[in-house]
Design goal:
Blueprint (H helix, E strand, L loop, with lengths): L5 E5 L4 H13 L2 E8 L18 H14 L2 E6 L1 H17 L6 H20 L4 E3 L4 E6 L2 E6 L16 H5 L1 E2 L7 H10 L3 H4 L15 H8 L3 H5 L2 E4 L5 E5 L22 E6 L4 E5 L5 E12 L11 E4 L7 E8 L2 E11 L6 E6 L2 E11 L1
Parallel strand pairs: 1-2, 1-4, 2-3, 4-7, 8-11
Antiparallel strand pairs: 5-6, 8-9, 10-11, 12-15, 12-17, 13-14, 13-16, 14-15, 16-17
Amino acid sequence: MSKKGRILVAMSGGIDSTVAAMMLHEEGYEVVGITMKTWDYASSGSSGKETGCCSLDSINDAREIAVKMGFHHFIVDIREEFGDYVIDNFVDEYIAGRTPNPCILCNTHIKWDALLKRADAMDCEFIATGHYAKISNSEGRYYVSKGKDERKDQSYVLWGLSQTCLDRTLFPLADLNKEEIRQMAKDWGHESLALKPESYEICFVPDNDYRGFLKRRKPGLQEQVSGGLFVDQEGNVIGNHEGYPFFTIGQRKGLGSAFGKPMYVTEIQPQTNTVVLGEMDDLLRNGMLVYKTNSMKYAQIPEKSDIHTMVRYNDAGTMGTTRLVEDKIEVVFQANVRGVAPGQSAVFYEGDDVLGGGIIYSSI
C-alpha cells in the first residue's frame, strides 16, 4: 500500500481521465483504473460509428495506459443500472415535452454510486475523475467550484453530487488547462493520446440523432404523435410537424417547413401535440421554476437577490433573485434569458462556487 493510499480512477480512455490517473500515479497513490461500460452499441440500432466513453476502442485505450503505467485496471458492466434509469428517463422526458440532460443524471445517480460501490469493494479510500472542476470544503460542507480552464469548466454538470460523493472525490485537473494536459501526455510519451479528439455525443446516441433513437426505443411512437401542428405566438396554425417529442426549445433547424424568416421553437404543448414557433426575441423569459434541487455550499440554496444562474452548459449566466415556492425555487432574472428549456439544469453560483442546482420545471 502506498503512503498516499489506494484510489479508484474512472478512466474513459480519453486524454483527461488518463492524465488524471497518471498524475495520481506519479504523486504516489496506488491507482486502480476502472472503465464503466454503460451502453451496448450493438443494441442501439444506430448506423453511427462506435465512439465515446464506452466504445471498445476507448476501453482498450484505458487498459493499455494502465498496463504501461503498471497499475490495475478493471472493466465494470453497468449497462443494466444505466439503461433502466438514464435511458428510460431520457425517453420519458422527451415524451413529456421536456429536454433532458442525461449526462447530469448519469453523474448524479449512476456513475458516482457505481464508483463508490466498487471503491468500497476494492478498499479504495477515494475516487477520482478527469473533470475540469474543483472540490472545496467550508464549515463542514463540500461543494464544487469552477476549474482553472473556464473554456472547459464542468462544474455545471456536477451540481447533483451529494456530500457523501464529494467527501471522497478528487479532481486532479482542477488547476490545469487543456494545453497543459496535452503537453503532459506528450511528456509522458503518449503523443497519440495528446492528439486524440474529444467526444461530445451522448454515449447511447453515437450518431447524434436523438429523434431516431426515440423512434427505435419506442416502436410506434412516430404513428402516435404524427400530425401535430405548428402555431405562431397568437395560436394561428402555420404548418404541420411529425410529433412534439422531436423538438426542443430554441430549435431552429429541422422544422421541416419554410416560413419566410428564421423561426424557433418557443414552447412545446404535449397534451395537444402542438409546437409553438416564434422569432428569436420570443424565446426571452424573465424567470423560471426549478425543482428536484440539490444544495451544495449551504444546507439549502439561499433566497437572495444576487444569485448567478446558468441554464445550460457554457451559458454565460444571468443574475437573478431566488425565492422558495413550496417544493420549488422561483428565479426572477435581472435581464431576460433566451431559451429556458424545461428538463434542462439550472445551476446557481456564488462567484466560482456552486451553491447547488436543479431541473428547470417551467419558464415564467
